[in-house]
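Per reviewer request, we include the raw input and output of the structure prediction for the construct analysed in the revised manuscript.
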Amino acid sequence: VALIQLFALIAAGTAIGFSLGRRRVAGTEVRLRDSEARTRAILEGAADGIVTIDEGGIIRSVNPAAKRIFGYDAAEMIGNNVAMLMPEPYRSGHDGYLRNYRSTGRAHIIGIGREVEGQRKDGSTFSMDLSVGESQVHGRRIFAGIVRDITERKQVEERLRASEAHFRALIDGVRDYAIVMVSPDGRLQSWNLGAERLYGWSEDEALGTSVSRFYPLDAIARGDHRLALETARRDGRFEDEGWRLRRDGSRFWAHMILTAIRDGDGPLRGFARVSHDMTEHKRTEDDLKRARDAAEAARAIAERARKQAERANVAKTKFLAAASHDLRQPVQAIFFFTSVLAHKLRTHPAQAVLADLQSSLDGLNILLDSLLDVSKLDAGLVAPKETDFCVSAILDRLAADYTALAADKGLFLRMVPSSAMVRSDPALLLRIVQNLVANAVRYTNSGRILLGCRRRDGRLRIEVWDTGIGIPHERTREIFEEFTQLGNPERDRTQGLGLGLAIVDRLAKLLAHRVDVCSQPGRGSMFAVEVPRAAVYKMAAPPAVGRARRGYEGMCTVVLIDDDPTVLRGLTLVLKGWGYDVLAAASEEEAMVKLAGTRNRPSLILADYRLREGHTGTEAVAHIRDHFHFDIPSIIITGDTAPERLREAEASGLAILHKPIRPPVLREALRESIGNTGT
């Protein structure tokens, strides 16, 4: 009541005197009652709690918000010491604070907002903002406290602090990437451990300095650091690769991304700069370029040895130098030309040089095919076709393929026959076990290799044992990573490329087959793949390469479409050498013009997938088929390994061959496609 009267008197703006006449008193009382009603409505509707106490700390009034915040009814609070709403140590010190204030007049809380702890009826404590004001009512001191529960705000602040701490710990824990904040004028504002590891400067040495210190003198002269900041400020992001400097003056090849940081659509706060050491990647690219240059030189020598007088072949020797970023196009052309040369130079002294070139191309082809396999698996283009079949189909095939190879190394390969039925994709399972057997032969110098099966808990384990070099236990997972070869530190390409087990790992995951390895250095290894046993025992066809009928070449016309003139010419020579009539065209339009002059339906269409001006080989096939009103057998060849291009080619439903295609593989594909139609 005292609080209501206080606010009512202030609202009325006057003092009521006892000397007024009765009429004047009555009018004033009416205004006072109106004022009290308005004040009561304001207090009851307030979102913050309001508690009034007297000089002794006794609660005189509370509003509904205060009851809700503290959990008490008004009757439970009014008349009691306000200390009941405080936890220790505030409770014990409250009365002493009031006495000190009354005697000295020094205030520590009154008139000042502060953050304190409150205590609810159930004993729980919470954070609150408290503001205390003092007034006089009828000559007595009244203190009004306004309370706001800030528990939710404190929780948000705590989560924010935890998030910032977590983010900082995350950034500091990244050791392979330099992650720093840069001010709008290009000065370093933060520095993580990865930056210290990459550049060599400590945080104290780096903060406040310009990002230009990372750049060599020639890059600074060009203004590369300023260009990065200006581009990121304008476009929001800048990405670059180039040489950078460490504290000790050494250089490394870095990949850098600079991202602008803004307050929404507001002013620029700075930049986030992420850098990574790409020196090894750059060195690998340079090595590949040198290898490509060496291949170009070898091909030029072979071409000149075959016929130095034919200047027309200069275009053949230059096509690699003028080739685009796509390495598969020139490699494909080399395959076709060496195939033609091999036939024409069988007794020529240059045959030995040509043989070396073919051997080098075989190594390069293995690398490209393995990378393609990995790309196809990563792109999700390999769809398992599970069936029930007898595992003997795989065992017999591998024994036939590798027994002689093992014997050439002085090894004894033994295959234990099995009639077990399994459920899997025959071709993909064959590839898994084939890679395991090939590795066993490759890394075993003496002794024997055992290929066999064990039945276990409704599954069949296909195991490959060898007496090879073995693998340290701590590195048994590492061997399934790309380009990992523990027994080939010299990177001898005759020992493979380190992709076989990476493909095994991906195929096994695709098929949901478990792969185990057990090895002891110096004694040998055991690799096993677990396959579900077939629920229904029925014999399926073994995973063998199909055989097409022979003898069609001399009667067949092949429409060949490829926009690379070198590949087009080389493939034309190869096809003609096999006895095919060839209608060669660099585009769909050219092919349709040539076909318009003949009534004979071609036997097969062989088209590159990506043609000029955005056209594709699948479109060309569809238009030629429409022209002849017949589903002519067709094969798409492609050098693209990007996942999206692979998906597009596979979606055509046509047979796909990936460049570089070895001539024997292409010949078999042509025979099979034509033979299956009975053309």
